[in-house]
Design brief:
The complex is a heterodimer of chains A (270) and B (200). Chain A is built from 13 helices and two strands, in the order H-H-H-H-H-H-H-E-E-H-H-H-H-H-H. Chain A has 270 residues and is mainly alpha-helical. In chain A, helix 1 packs antiparallel against helix 8 and helix 9 crosses helix 10. Chain A is globular, with a radius of gyration of 19 Å. The N and C termini of chain A lie far apart (58 Å). Chain B is α+β, with helices and mostly antiparallel strands and 200 residues long. In chain B, strands 1-2-3-4-5 form a five-stranded antiparallel beta sheet. Chain B is globular and about 70 Å long. The chains are: A mainly alpha (270), B alpha+beta (200). Chains A and B meet through helix 11, helix 12 and helix 13 of A and helix 4, helix 5, strand 2, strand 3 and strand 4 of B.
Chain lengths: 270, 200
């Protein structure tokens, strides 16, 4: 009952936020590339002052905690880090697969299920990416925020979450779905009532995912910060562009240029 | 008879010009490969970081449409900027771009980029696809290059799209944020650009 209440609350919050962040173009619409383009191209930074404050806090935390931890993690031998990264990616399939289904990508859901089964068994809990060696297609993560986007929901306002970083109201709501039953790993570890996994395992996994991500991006983020005049705006743009591409289910290679084609034509008209 | 000869002569001249212009047209694919090879060579040389930066700046000046990127980066503000400010902007933007570009690249040593294919979007633009090859530390990264082909003899890079993220768009949104958050509008951006260019 409590869960249903939270879900209803979240749904109404989402629809309100979609409207709040709207300038007339950012509204619930039918799924189409055009709608994805239009809605995400106009993501409003409704709470910019607050967001910049949280961003400064996150940068402080990063400097004192996350970056040093990520650097220490980088000292581990490459095979250990690769194995850890593979396990985490394999676990993320448990969220990706239901989202593939919710987005109507049944074939991809099948491929990802096969990949998960092979890597969990033959690949020893995902340590070895056996499926890749067998020729499985490249893995693309999906989450509930992306599914909401594919369904046509606008992103709502841009948000910077403490510790977690860039997000939008839609993507934040998507993250809540994980803890409302949408993440099988969460269900098993936190509510599974078993002797193998508990809540601390779930938290440790999430923390490790963050450290792994930070460790992979130490130089890139340093470089971006050094060469940015407004680092907040640069990161916001990176995040929103990446989400836009993922929601449009555009491969990094392929028809990505179409997403921004109109903007370049505009240059030509000058 | 004479008229026929004149016609033949003009036909031959026209055909020759056709071949001549075609022979000077550079395929965007080859152009990008040549540019990344030149950058890679500069980065591999056993020279100081400052010398590498100078070499990269020369490569960028010859292969990037800096004015086009500057124009794009202004976003909607290009419609309201005065001619005088625009010229001021382009001068400082060029210095900013060359410094930022060379500084970003100079951190790489021995980058291996494989150019894969090209896709003509229209007469003005072609997208060239490439991969920054993986190392033991880093996975393979997909890099797409938007090349301006308005002048086929002198193609120029106008955007780099890394794993689907357009760097020109990031820059445009950064500039827009600076202008919007500044009390001085475009002047605020110009001040920021000057500060960036002058900092060590």
């Amino acid at each position: 009952m409590k869960r249903i209440f939270i879900l209803i609350f979240l749904s109404s919050f989402l629809s309100v936020s979609v409207y709040a962040g709207s300038d007339g173009s950012n509204e619930l619409s039918k799924k189409s590339d055009a709608s994805v383009k239009k809605s995400d191209a106009s993501v409003k930074d409704c709470f910019e002052g607050l967001n910049r404050g949280v961003f400064a806090l996150n940068q402080g935390l990063d400097k004192v905690i996350f970056k040093p931890v990520a650097k220490a993690y980088r000292v581990l031998p490459v095979p250990v880090r690769t194995g850890t990264s593979n396990v985490l990616t394999n676990l993320s399939s448990l969220i990706t697969i239901p989202n593939n289904v919710l987005q109507g990508q049944f074939k991809t859901a099948g491929v990802n299920t096969g990949r998960f089964l092979i890597n969990t068994t033959v690949g020893i809990l995902g340590i070895f990416n056996v499926a890749k060696k067998m020729g499985f297609s490249e893995y693309e993560k999906e989450d509930y925020g992306q599914t909401f986007g594919v369904w046509g929901m606008g992103s709502g306002c841009y948000l910077v979450l403490p510790v977690l970083g860039p997000s939008t109201i839609r993507d934040t709501a998507g993250s809540f779905v994980n803890v409302l039953g949408g993440d099988p790993y969460y269900n098993v570890s936190v509510h599974g009532n078993n002797e193998f996994l508990d809540k601390s395992d779930y938290i440790a996994t999430k923390a490790l995912t963050g450290i792994d991500f930070r460790a992979k991006n130490i130089e890139s983020l340093e470089n971006l910060e050094k060469n940015s005049m407004d680092f907040y705006a640069s990161l916001k743009s990176l995040y929103l562009q990446d989400r836009q591409r993922k929601i449009a289910n555009t491969k990094p290679r392929g028809n990505i240029e179409i997403l921004y084609e109109g903007e370049w034509e505009e240059i030509e008209s000058q | 008879m004479l008229a026929k000869k004149i016609c033949k002569f003009f036909l031959l001249v026209s055909i020759s010009f056709c071949f001549l212009s075609n022979s000077f047209a550079i395929e965007p694919y080859s152009f990008v490969q040549k540019t990344v090879d030149a950058a890679s060579e500069a980065l591999n040389k056993r020279i100081s970081k400052e010398e590498k930066i100078e070499k990269l700046k020369i490569i960028a000046e010859n292969s990037v449409d800096i004015r086009g990127i500057g124009y794009y980066s202004l976003g909607s503000h290009r419609k309201t900027i005065t001619k005088k400010k625009e010229e001021e902007y382009f001068i400082i933007f060029k210095q900013y771009f060359l410094k930022s570009f060379s500084s970003r690249l100079a951190q790489y040593t021995d980058p291996k980029i494989r150019v894969n294919s090209q896709k003509k979007l229209n007469d003005k633009y072609t997208m060239v696809s490439s991969d920054l090859l993986s190392t033991t530390e880093k996975p393979e990264i997909k890099i797409d290059w938007r090349v301006v082909t308005k002048n086929p003899e002198n193609p120029l890079i106008i955007d780099v799209v890394i794993e689907g993220v357009s760097l020109a768009k990031v820059q445009r949104e950064e500039f827009n944020s600076i202008i919007q958050n500044s009390d001085n509008g475009i002047d605020g951006l110009l001040n920021n650009l000057r500060e960036f260019v002058n900092k060590d």
